[in-house]
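Try this one yourself first.
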């Protein structure tokens, strides 16, 4: 029998063993973790909506009407009026013809890729794409090719060599570990020239970028029949689930063929109702995005003098590169001892020797809280030098 115990010990020696922390409070800038209060910079709740009263109230009202579970797949009896309302609202919000709901972003990416391509086709993936895109490409049975990060010239060359079958290009819009953005307008143009679809994973841009938070495609001014957008509802939207939006015929085909849509129980209707309420808050509360941008500028100015490299991100994801796994975890622990929670991200999630602190900002953080983090990091650098 394989000895996993030895492999777990080896992960521990390499400072790569993952652990969980038990949170006993609602999500927000202040969290109670294992009976201790922390100032949190580790959440993807970018707009601070995970505990918004109007969104919570919408879920409670829907619970009274629909109960808790959907009880069946969407193609049997699980597609409620709440789901239908959400899909129409998402299409309207993104400015795209149609939308289709999924249980999670991972399920959406896996399902869409498998529905659009298979044996004899080609999927071309940005090198830093999310694991769900890479796994979806591998499991689709299509030929998998990789192009260098955000390199549209190399993508053009790769697509030019694809002589048969369908072609699908997949990329993050905002890359979750580096915080940088894909050149979506250029990618869309290259794909159009070669007759390829473009699937954009906007998990970290939806709600944050674009007019009224309508997402990365709106931010880049991209709207075309060959472009699909996947967005998640558990990050900036503060709820749970995901969706794919785009051409109506493409969405109709995906509904017929996406196994992660067809063969799973539909998402709870109460969460669909909550997500619909969240869209209204996202569109109305421009102050959240304005405040986020100010916090990003404050953090970057405050950390500019550190020897650790802060990657060039203008999004709420602010990665501070430490390098060595053990040093990154030691820095995380120093901050935890001061009541500040910032996660250390190590390989294989990021490339070797690029272990980092992944600082995530929220619209509910105050300038004083960001200043506290800056001061703690400056002091920690002096201690660890």
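Now uncover the answer:
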């Amino acid at each position: 029998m394989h000895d996993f115990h030895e492999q777990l010990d080896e992960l521990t020696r390499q400072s790569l063993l993952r652990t969980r922390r038990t949170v006993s409070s609602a999500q927000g800038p202040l969290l109670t973790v294992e009976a201790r209060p922390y100032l949190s910079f580790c959440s993807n709740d970018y707009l601070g909506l995970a505990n918004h009263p109007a969104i919570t109230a919408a879920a409670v009202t829907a619970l009274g009407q629909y109960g808790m579970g959907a009880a069946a797949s969407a193609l049997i009896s699980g597609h409620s009026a709440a789901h239908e309302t959400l899909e129409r609202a998402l299409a309207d919000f993104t400015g795209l013809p149609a939308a289709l709901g999924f249980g999670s972003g991972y399920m959406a990416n896996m399902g869409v890729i498998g529905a659009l391509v298979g044996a004899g086709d080609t999927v071309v993936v940005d090198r830093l794409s999310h694991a769900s895109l890479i796994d979806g490409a591998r499991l689709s049975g299509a030929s998998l090719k990789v192009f260098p990060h955000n390199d549209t010239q190399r993508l053009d060359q790769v697509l030019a060599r694809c002589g048969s079958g369908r072609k699908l290009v997949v990329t993050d819009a905002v890359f979750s570990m580096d915080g940088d953005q894909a050149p979506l307008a250029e990618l869309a143009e290259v794909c159009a020239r070669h007759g390829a679809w473009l699937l954009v994973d906007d998990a970290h841009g939806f709600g944050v970028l674009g007019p009224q938070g309508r997402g990365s495609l709106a931010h880049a001014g991209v709207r075309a029949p060959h472009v699909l957008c996947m967005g998640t509802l558990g990050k900036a939207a503060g709820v749970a689930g995901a969706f794919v939006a785009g051409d109506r015929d493409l969405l109709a085909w995906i509904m017929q063929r996406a196994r992660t849509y067809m063969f799973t129980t539909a998402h709870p209707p109460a969460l669909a109702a909550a997500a619909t309420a969240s869209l209204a808050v996202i569109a109305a509360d421009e102050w959240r995005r304005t405040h986020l941008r100010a916090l990003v500028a404050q953090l970057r100015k405050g950390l500019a003098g550190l020897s650790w490299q802060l990657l060039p991100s203008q999004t709420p994801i602010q990665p501070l590169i430490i390098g060595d796994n053990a040093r990154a975890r030691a820095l995380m622990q120093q901050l935890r001892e001061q009541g500040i929670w910032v996660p250390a991200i190590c390989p294989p999630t990021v490339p070797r020797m690029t272990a980092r602190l992944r600082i995530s900002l929220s619209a509910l953080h105050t300038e004083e809280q960001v200043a506290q983090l800056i001061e703690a990091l400056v002091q920690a650098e002096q201690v660890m030098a």
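Discussion: The first helix runs from residue 4 to 13. The mean pLDDT is 96.
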